[in-house]
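re: the backbone from monday

yeah here it is again, tokenized this time
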């Protein structure tokens, strides 16, 4: 073999080896992408399976679910939600849309837990879909979209197993995501009007919709001044007109509950640093890092400053406006769901940028390995045992026993904590939830003083033949507990003979009916 033939053979060998090497690298990149999808799908599937096992449970999973059911029953009865605080019914501090939406399936399914939980479950699935699409459209990377969905689903436990509860949070987030999705695509007047309608819907589901309207309108403003004006006018007109109508028809109580009373609850700044460490700097630090990387511009080129500005505004406002209300007395991690949704979005964008990085001859293998490792670490830290969120057969039987015992007690009956027990076992169709009373007392003012008189008179006059206390009674002013001890006599517990670990709520504060007090 001459020298020319040897050179040709060597060149051919190098080409074949190069093609084989390139093919191997591409295969490795594909496998890593597939691994990211599988790892990210796991928390989604785990949430769905857990939620489906919980959604039909006929008792409270969280102690304020009973109050939600009371709100739905008021709507179905054609009555106003917002009224003078009373022992018959005192509303929560939220706007009314979630209760009206939940009343629709309640017409078929009944005014129990299933209808509002179904609304929340479908809403959070809609949030997953819109989040994945948002990241995919922003990055042209469906793998990063799946990673973002997995990150949001992974916060199920740290936010209190809240996604499918009979509470307002999931529907609110759905309206927020839907408004963002439409704003990214709106081309004409109808699209801008649709954005305004969705923003108004978010505002009438939870007050947080007001500040989160800002980045949506900013996005439209960066695209078209005309579209932004149409959306802003639509939102403002709907919010002002609807709020005015509600306020006039309720003689001012609507704005008292939705704006005035929440503003009176003080932020406990002493909780700031411990809460930030727990919920952002330890358990979800990789997601927080994703949010910081977005604020620093990772994933956005020099010519995409408008996209960066919109996303930075959304992440900043979602985190700030979620975290500050959480610091109020009684704040619970469910309030951080919008913040975690924003951090999941930011992390998805950052993941896409990392996946497209090139590591010399190895292509994106190195960056994708890093993404896999970070996701695995985050999912491991946020991992939970589904059994902890699921009521057991003993819980079901325990609740049945407690209900039977409550029904045999002298009526009228008042159970502190969830109004579900009073509505189900008592002889009054609607009873205020203790959380409603606590909110009034925390806010102070003449309404609080008047409610104290009403409650004190009810105790002194033995309006209730039986009062059943639980842990939440400790959040009421001490004077009421002293008054109950003077006017009522202890008569055992509805938990007598039951195991000590049954019928505790699986989400939120751990409460259950306990001590029985009979009028003297």
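seq for it, each position gets an aa:
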């Amino acid at each position: 073999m001459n020298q020319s033939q040897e050179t040709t053979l060597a060149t051919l060998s190098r080409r074949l080896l190069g093609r084989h090497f390139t093919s191997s690298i591409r295969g490795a990149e594909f496998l890593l992408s597939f691994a990211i999808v599988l790892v990210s799908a796991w928390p989604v599937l785990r949430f769905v399976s857990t939620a489906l096992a919980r959604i039909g449970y006929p008792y409270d999973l969280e102690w304020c679910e009973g109050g939600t059911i009371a709100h739905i029953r008021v709507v179905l009865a054609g009555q106003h939600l917002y009224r003078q605080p009373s022992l018959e019914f005192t509303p929560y501090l939220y706007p009314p849309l979630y209760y009206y939406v939940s009343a629709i399936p309640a017409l078929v399914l009944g005014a129990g837990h299933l209808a509002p939980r179904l609304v929340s479950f479908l809403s959070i699935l809609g949030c997953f879909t819109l989040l994945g699409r948002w990241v995919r459209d922003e990055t042209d990377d469906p793998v990063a979209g799946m990673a973002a969905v997995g990150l949001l689903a992974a916060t199920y436990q740290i936010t209190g197993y809240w996604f499918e509860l009979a509470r307002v949070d999931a529907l609110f987030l759905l309206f927020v995501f839907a408004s963002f999705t439409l704003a990214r695509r709106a081309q004409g007047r109808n699209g801008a009007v649709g954005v305004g309608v969705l923003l108004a819907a978010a505002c009438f589901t939870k007050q947080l919709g007001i500040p989160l309207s800002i980045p949506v309108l900013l996005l439209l403003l960066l695209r078209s001044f005309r579209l932004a004006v149409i959306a802003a006018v639509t939102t403002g007109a709907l919010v002002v007109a609807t709020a005015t109508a509600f306020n006039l028809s309720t003689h001012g109580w609507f704005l008292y509950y939705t704006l005035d009373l929440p503003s009176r609850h003080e932020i406990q700044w002493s909780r700031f640093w411990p809460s930030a460490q727990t919920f952002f700097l330890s358990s979800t630090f990789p997601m927080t890092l994703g949010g910081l990387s977005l604020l620093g511009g990772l994933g956005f080129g020099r010519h995409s400053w408008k996209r960066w500005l919109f996303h930075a505004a959304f992440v900043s406002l979602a985190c700030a406006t979620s975290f500050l209300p959480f610091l109020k007395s009684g704040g619970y991690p469910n309030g951080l769901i919008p913040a975690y949704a924003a951090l999941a979005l930011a992390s998805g964008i950052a993941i896409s940028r990392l996946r497209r990085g090139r590591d010399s001859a190895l292509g994106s293998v190195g960056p994708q390995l890093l993404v896999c490792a970070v996701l695995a670490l985050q999912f491991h830290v946020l991992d939970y045992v589904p059994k902890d969120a699921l009521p057991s057969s003993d819980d079901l039987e325990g609740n049945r026993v407690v209900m039977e015992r409550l029904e045999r007690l002298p009526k009228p009956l008042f159970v502190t904590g969830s109004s579900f027990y009073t509505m189900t076992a008592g002889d009054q169709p609607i009873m205020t939830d203790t959380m409603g009373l606590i909110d009034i007392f925390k806010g102070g003012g003449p309404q609080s003083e008047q409610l104290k008189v009403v409650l004190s008179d009810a105790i002194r006059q033995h309006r209730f033949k039986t009062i059943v206390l639980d842990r939440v009674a400790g959040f009421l002013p001490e004077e009421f507990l002293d008054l109950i001890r003077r006017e009522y006599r202890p008569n055992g517990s509805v938990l007598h003979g039951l195991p000590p670990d049954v019928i505790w709520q699986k989400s939120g504060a751990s409460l259950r009916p306990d001590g029985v007090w009979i009028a003297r």
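The first helix runs from residue 3 to 54. The radius of gyration is 27 Å.
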